Amino acid sequence: MLKRVQHDNFVVILASKSMDTNKFFQSKVFIVIILGIGALVILLFGFKVGEIVGAKKADFSCRWSDNYQRNFGGPRGGFPGGFGDQDFIEANGTFGQIIKVDGSTLIVKGRNDIEKVILVKDATTIKRLQDTIKLSDLKADDSVVVIGQANDSGQIEAKLIRVMPASSKDMTRQMPLPGGPRLR
Fold first, then answer.
1. What is the pLDDT of residues 18-58, one digit of tens each?
2. CA 152, 146, 92 angle in degrees (round to 5)?
């Protein structure tokens, strides 16, 4: 209800407490509005996360092509025109065959014969099946899975390197049997 109060030359209209705001906050309309705003916030958050991930992948691919000449002796100035219709390069790891071991650096030929520079740090874990091995145990032609973080030069700083068995026969010979020792 509205009240009309006259004070000197002014007329003031006051809303009384009889307008029940509690009914509005408990109404279905209010609940739908709040749920809609919540859904919009979640949707916008999802878009922002996707934008950040896409920007990181694009940045890695750009830096990788910019540093290709330095890393692999490819065309000076990187690739003209980018990667065409190919997808972004995997920034956080690779799977492939070691083609060169040079100190604490590995060159791995991965998918589509793309060579990647892998930097091995002191904190890098290197596993062959269940055994932890040393960098000196790695050799050319070993198949590896590398998980790490890309640096600004387009190289992968390895966190984990897992050496894959050369064949299933090697794998069954080295895998422990349930409840028993390893067969050699």
1. 457 777 778 888 899 999 999 999 999 999 999 999 988 88
2. 40
Residue 141: CB atoms within 10 Å: 8
Q: Across the chain, what does the average pLDDT equal?
A: 76
Placement of tokens 């791995």 in the chain: 108
Under 8 Å between Cβ of 65 and 100 = no
Nearest to 110 by CA among 129, 94, 121: 94
Distance CA 81, CA 65 (A): 10
Q: Which residues pair with 22 in a beta bridge?
A: none
Strands 115-128 and 105-109: antiparallel
Which residue is associated with the tokens 């002191």? 122
Q: What is the 3-state secondary structure (H, E, C) of 125-182?
A: EEEECCEECCHHHCCCCCEEEEEEEECCCCCEEEEEEEEECCCHHHHHHHCCCCCCCC
Identify the residue whose tokens are 């145990």: 137
Q: Is the dihedral of CA 41, 42, 43, 46 positive or negative?
A: positive
Sign of CA dihedral 86, 92, 98, 101: positive
Residue-wise pLDDT for 56-100, tens only, equals 888 887 777 666 656 655 445 545 555 455 555 555 788 899 999
Q: CB-side exposure of 157: number of CA atoms within 13 Å?
A: 8
Residue 105 has pLDDT above 80, yes or no: yes
